[in-house]
Amino acid sequence: MQTLTQRLANPTRFMALSGAILPWLALIATAVTITGLVMGFRAPPDYQQGETVRIMFIHVPAAWLAMMGYAFVAMSSFGLLVFRHPLADVSAKAAAPIGAAFTFIALVTGSLWGKPMWGTYWVWDARLTSVLILFFLYLGLIALRASVDDEALGAKLVAVLALVGVTILPFIKISVEGLSIPSLGINIPGWNTLHQPSSVLRVGGPKIHSSILVPLLVSAVGFTLLFVTLHLKGMRNEILRRRLVALRLTEVERVRRREIEGAGQA
Amino acid sequence: MIDLGPHTRFIVVAYVLAAAVLAALIVWLYADGRRLAARLKELDERGVKRRSATRGGQTPSGAGGSNAA
User: Fold this and answer.
1) Residues A61/A223, Cβ–Cβ less than 8 Å
2) Which of A4, A117, A136, A237 has the greatest number of C-beta atoms within 10 Å?
3) How far apart are CA A108 and CA A105, in angstroms?
4) Distance CA A258, CA A13 (A)
C-alpha cells in the first residue's frame, strides 16, 4: 500500500491530479478570501484600533503564511535531502517566491498599520526584524538557486540553506512572547518590543471578540487556500519546465548522434 | 461608501498593495504556465517526445527532477 506522498512521486500522476483539483481550489480560495474580507469590512471597528483593524484581516493571515510557506520550503528540503522524493525540490522551488510575496505583504501591511497606531512605519524590534530576515532568507534561496548552473547541485545547496534558515521560525514566534517551559528549565524572556503577542493562537484561547475573530479566521482559511492553489500552480509550471529541459536535451542528443553516424558513413 | 475614519489612506493603500502583489503573482504563474505549455506543444508537434512517451508511457519520468537528472 503506497502512501499519498509515494503515489504523488510520479509526476504524471501529480499533473493529472493537480490539474483536476486546481480550478476548483482556485474558485474556493477566491470565494473564501473575498467572504473573509467582506466580513472584515462589515465587522465593527475595534475599540482601540478603530478602523485600522481592517488591515489586520490581510496582515495576520499573510504573516501566518509567511511562516507556513517557509515551513513548506524546509519540509520539502528535508524531503529532498533525506528521502530524495522526486517532487520535493519542485515543491521547495515553487514555494519560495510565493512565501516571499506573502512575507512582503505582511511587512508592508504591518508597516501601514504601524504608522497610525504606533506613530512609526518601522522599528528595529525583534519581531519586525526577524520577519525582515525571513524575507531576505526567501530572497537568498531564490538567488542561490539562480546562481548555480547545475540544477541538481543547486537544489541540494538551496535545501541545506533552507534547513539552516528554519531556525528563524521559532525565533519569530518567541521574539515577542518568549518561551517558558518550567519542567524543562527553559525560560527565554520575550524581547522588549512594540509588536503585540499573539491574540489567536495562545494558551487559554483567543482573546479577540468573535465579531473580529470570525472574519479573521475565514480570511486566514481563504489566504491558506490561495497559497496552496498558487503553490500547486507553481509546482505544475516547474514540472513542465523540467520536461522542456529534458526534451531539449533528448533532441540535442539525437541530433549529435545523427551527426556522428553521418560522419562515420562518409 | 464605507467611512473608514481618519486613517482611510493607510487602509486603502494596504489593501491595494496586497491585491497588487497577489495579482502580480497570479499573472506571473499563469503566463509562465501558458508559455511552457506552448513550448512543449511546439516540440511535440515537431515530433520530439519524451523517452518514456516513445516507450509507451509505462514509466513516466517526465519531471526529470533534480535527483533524476
Assistant:
1) yes
2) A237
3) 5
4) 33
Q: If you search the block for the grid coordinates 506613530, which residue do you land on?
A: A119
* Chain A positions in Cβ-Cβ contact with residue B51 (cut-off 8 Å): 250
The whole-angstrom distance between B26's CA and the closest CA on chain A is 7
**Angle between the N-to-C axes of helices A88-118 and A151-165, in degrees from 0 to 180, rounded to the nearest 10:** 40
Closest C-alpha among A60, A37, A41 to residue B19: A37
CB pairs under 8 A between A and B: 131
Instruction: List chain B pLDDT tens, one digit each, 69 residues.
Output: 567 778 889 999 999 999 999 999 999 999 999 999 999 999 888 877 766 655 544 444 444 444 433
Closest-CA distance of chain B to residue A224, Å: 13
End-to-end CA distance of chain A: 56
Burial of residue A123, with CB atoms counted within 10 A of its CB: 0-12 exposed, 13-18 middle, 19 or more buried: middle
d(CA A116, CA A127): 19
**A99, A134, A111, A113: which is closest to A226 by C-alpha?**
A99
Query: A 159-218 residues with CB below 8 A of B?
Result: none
List of chain B residues whose C-beta atoms are within 8 Å of the C-beta of residue A33? none
**Do residue B67 and residue A41 have CB atoms under 8 angstroms apart?**
no
CB count, 10 Å around CB of A48? Answer: 8
CA distance A265 to chain B (A): 25
ipTM: 0.88
For the stretch A182-233, pLDDT in tens is: 888 877 777 767 787 777 766 667 778 888 899 999 999 999 999 999 999 9
